[in-house]
């Protein structure tokens, strides 16, 4: 049995997010195919993720021995480590990810929990896991020249690779705000791609 952590990062009201239409479809299909797996949904806005508190970075970057999973911030790093698979769902905002997702990344990137330093440098401790990142973008950032401006999915792929996760798949709905595009058709096609990916995730 696998443990799936479904990380949601969008400030829109329930039912308004195009990203979540796709990611929820992925999760529903995955549940049908893997009823024995545990799926934990972590909505970052519902969770109230905030920026790291001033003056506590030392404790957070190198947890003291005995600091447990009940710590208000470090509990997220432990939860992340314990998962086998991750589904991240976020819109593409201002050429990157929503700031709340970046704050969450700061919560889970902790020395001694999700990575460690060795004599030869940093080593990720989350090896053998896999990620699907589901995103929606107003423009088309799949090819140049716009692809060079894409710093959201690229950042997630890089930072999670730093934590040891190299099995990373992106599912994106592109061009949703380009005048003349059929938004429903784009979202529908991306939902089908997501369901297909759920078969071998």
Automatic annotation (TrEMBL):
* UniProt keyword list: Flavoprotein, FMN, NAD, Oxidoreductase
Q: Which InterPro entries match?
A: Flavodoxin_fold, Flavoprotein-like_sf, FMN-dep_NADH:Q_OxRdtase_AzoR1, NADH:quinone_OxRdtase_FMN_depd
Span of domain Flavodoxin-like fold: 2-196
Report the catalytic activity: N,N-dimethyl-1,4-phenylenediamine + anthranilate + 2 NAD(+) = 2-(4-dimethylaminophenyl)diazenylbenzoate + 2 NADH + 2 H(+); 2 a quinone + NADH + H(+) = 2 a 1,4-benzosemiquinone + NAD(+)
EC number(s) for this protein?
A: 1.6.5.-, 1.7.1.17
Q: What is the main EC category here?
A: oxidoreductase
Q: Does the keyword Flavoprotein apply?
A: yes
Cite the binding residues for FMN: 136-139
Q: Which cofactor does it need?
A: FMN
Does this entry carry the keyword Electron transport? no
Superkingdom field: Bacteria
User: Any note on cofactor binding?
Assistant: Binds 1 FMN per subunit.
Q: What does this protein do?
A: Also exhibits azoreductase activity. Catalyzes the reductive cleavage of the azo bond in aromatic azo compounds to the corresponding amines.
Per the record, the similarity remark reads:
Belongs to the azoreductase type 1 family.
Instruction: Output the HAMAP family linked to this UniProt entry.
Output: Azoreductase_type1 (MF_01216)
| Complexes and interactors | Homodimer.
Question: In its UniProt entry, what is this protein called?
Answer: FMN dependent NADH:quinone oxidoreductase
What species is this protein from? Answer: Clostridium omnivorum
